[in-house]
Amino acid sequence: MGQYYFPAGMRYATLDERREFYSREFDLKKVGGWFGCNLGYTKFAVIMGRHTKIFLPQYKEDAATTIIIDEYRDLADVRGQVLDFLPEAVYYDRNVYDKEGKVVGQELAFDLDPENVTCPVHGNLADKMKRKQGLSFCEIEFGIVQKETIGLYEFLAKRYSDLRVTYSGRGFHIHVMDKDAYQLSTQQRLELAAEAKKSGFQIDDWVTSGEFRLIRLPYSLNGLVSRIVLALKKEELESFDGIHDRRCIPQFLAAATS
Question: pTM for this one?
Fold first, then answer.
């Protein structure tokens, strides 16, 4: 499987499996529903093999590079370009652009990943990094970050009304869709991140501040763990099983385990 350890059943997706997923299973209708009428001039991005070291030979020099997809006719064209790259990960740019390419806002988002929590078995992130296991996680860590996501959602719901949650394949993202949140400055975002961390939530400041503007595309494949990025309702969070839920297991794995 490579250098990272994951809960049983999670593993890297092969190139053939990525091709199968994006050819047969990638649901453009659901992707379109995520954006609604806000697709506009959205930019997408792919990373081919930064963590898995699995990539098409012709992209060896760019395997760890973030490739931006900003010229496309429609979502079907985006899928065609993804199939050309067969990446381990697909993202979208949270920046909102006008027709001249000027940034006119940015979606506010919070990223909670299991490797950032302290595990009674595997230690904290610094411990994992020393072992070169920075992206690894176990079921205990997943359970901790899942509870944090519920708490953070409730924390944010006190000031925002339009929140969405996605399971990233490893952790969770909370997207704030309120219009006023799109206009927050970097400093305001950092202050909000600091307040959330002070309340005990281990979020990625770089994502919340907007310095890292990409976020995993809902309904794409997380090729690191072979899980589908899934939009969830808040009431699903407590009982959600991201390791075994059939909705996030791609057909190439479901067929092997059925």
Answer: 0.95
